[in-house]
């Protein structure tokens, strides 16, 4: 009967070692809220532009788009005119 008690003790130790990975899985699940906390912290660091800055940048984009459109239109007309001589 002494051997049975020793085998039971060894089996119990093996079972305790087998339970450790379950604790590791639980620890990984507990780390997920910290990701969202970090996300919230980083979101608070964002600085949004004021109305005046957005207006200036919008005007700059619209004017540069119009200018680029005119340049492309002029190049297109020059190329068409040049091809008119060839064909």
TrEMBL record:
Record has Transport as a keyword: yes
Cellular component aspect of the GO annotation: membrane
Cell location: Membrane
Compositionally biased region (Basic and acidic residues): 14-24
Transmembrane segments: 59-79
Keyword Protein transport: yes
Compositionally biased spans, kind Low complexity: 1-13
Record keywords: Membrane, Protein transport, Translocation, Transmembrane, Transmembrane helix, Transport
GO molecular function: protein transmembrane transporter activity
GO biological process: intracellular protein transport; protein secretion; protein targeting
Short name of any one Pfam family annotated for the protein: SecE
Top-rank taxon: Bacteria
Ranges where the record places region Disordered: 1-31
NCBIfam families referenced in this protein's UniProt entry, alphabetically: secE_bact
Record-given protein name: Preprotein translocase, SecE subunit
Annotated organism of origin: [Clostridium] asparagiforme DSM 15981
């Amino acid at each position: 009967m002494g051997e049975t008690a020793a085998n039971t003790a060894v089996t119990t130790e093996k079972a305790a070692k087998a339970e450790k990975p379950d604790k590791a899985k639980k620890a990984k699940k507990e780390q997920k809220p910290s990701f969202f906390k970090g996300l919230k912290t980083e979101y608070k660091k964002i600085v949004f532009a004021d109305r005046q800055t957005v207006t200036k940048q919008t005007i700059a984009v619209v004017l540069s788009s119009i200018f680029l459109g005119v340049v492309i239109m002029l190049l297109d007309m020059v190329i068409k005119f040049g091809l008119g001589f060839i064909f």
